[in-house]
Design goal:
Number of strands: 10
Structural class: alpha+beta
Number of domains: 2
Helix content: 25-40%
Order of helices and strands: HHHHEEEEEEHEEHEEHHH
Strand content: 5-15%
Mean pLDDT: 85
Shape: globular
Length: 316
């Protein structure tokens, strides 16, 4: 799935500038084919991702905390999987001295770096990697992306990897098709949305840009853009820029244990909200009917699956 962008929102003035267009490194760049191959490898993660984690015995009230409790572990395992996919992004072993590694607390948090200090360049590209527990309450990624466009190298990417447990409330992490966008374009789109396309009242929509322009900055560099007025603390919530809307809609049609992710997300939200028995039963039936499985017996089977997991959660 390629990232798709929402158009202008509502009745915008004719002077509203167009949103930033998709970007990529110059095709004359000597590592351009490597960059393309890395993107291909990222899209193969759902079939190649490996995890040694096995989760069981989770309380219903703890399910929505997975993103914070396991997010960093999942991201580390994504990096390991990318290195194991070298045959995809480096089939001729031209970059045998390079590997993906994490560099915490700075941007981007993953870089393709040379293992020997005398190899130039030391870093070929970077990935700002965000794991996303797809069954979280919000129904969208909650990460903040405040980096200023100027520090993003042309080959840098923002990658969001959605995941869930293979048996919904237990099992090993399973990843789904990632969201991939050029890092600079994402930063520009965030600023464009804040200044020109978001709804609401008020005229103070300015963004103060960071003065840092160095690619692969130091930890101490102040590389974040800031909204000049942000009472709701929403600036940087990239998913709220509408840039991921089409991707998220398509993602939630993917299935986990034979049931669309959207149905699981609504089910878990319904069950953990402390509803009455009658309202939960009505919600389960509604979810089964919304799953677009035509034969009545299959809808009943689907409702039974929801109830089965509901009983497991009730017993925790």
């Amino acid at each position: 799935m390629q990232p798709l962008f929402a158009g202008l929102m509502g009745n915008q003035e004719l002077t509203t500038p167009e949103p930033p267009k998709p970007t990529e490194p110059d095709q004359t760049w000597e590592h351009y084919e490597l960059w393309r191959a890395v993107k291909r490898a990222i899209y193969t993660l759902p079939s190649r991702f490996e995890s040694e984690l096995i989760i069981s015995g989770v309380l219903a009230t703890d399910l929505f905390a997975f993103n914070s409790s396991l997010g960093a572990t999942i991201e580390e395992q994504v990096i390991e999987s990318l290195n194991k996919l070298r045959s995809v992004w480096d089939p001729q072993q031209k970059y045998s001295l390079y590997s993906f590694e994490r560099q915490p607390q700075t941007f981007p948090d993953v870089v393709l770096r040379a293992s020997a200090p005398d190899v130039k360049p030391q870093v070929l590209m970077g990935i700002e990697l965000k794991g996303w527990y797809a069954l979280a309450k919000e129904g969208e990624p909650s990460f903040r992306y405040n980096v200023t466009p100027a520090v993003c190298a042309p080959a840098d990417l923002l990658v969001v990897v959605p995941w869930a447990l293979s048996k919904v409330i237990s099992g090993s992490p399973q990843v789904f098709t990632p969201y991939v966008i050029n890092a600079r374009q994402a930063a520009e789109y965030r600023n464009w949305y804040w200044e020109h396309a978001r709804g609401g009242k008020g005229t103070d929509r300015g963004v103060s840009l960071s003065s840092v322009t160095t690619h692969y900055p130091n930890k101490t560099d102040q590389i974040s853009d800031q909204a000049q007025k942000d009472a709701g603390k929403n600036f940087g919530r990239f998913a709220r820029s509408k840039a991921m809307d089409s991707y998220i809609e398509e993602l939630f049609n993917d299935k986990l244990a034979g049931i669309p992710l959207s149905a699981w997300q609504k089910f878990l939200l319904l069950f953990t909200e402390g509803q009455t028995t009658e309202s939960v039963e009505a919600g389960l039936n509604a979810l089964a009917n919304r799953a677009r499985i035509a034969p009545e017996n299959q809808r009943n089977d689907l409702a039974d699956k929801f109830r089965e997991i509901g009983d497991i959660l009730a017993g925790d």
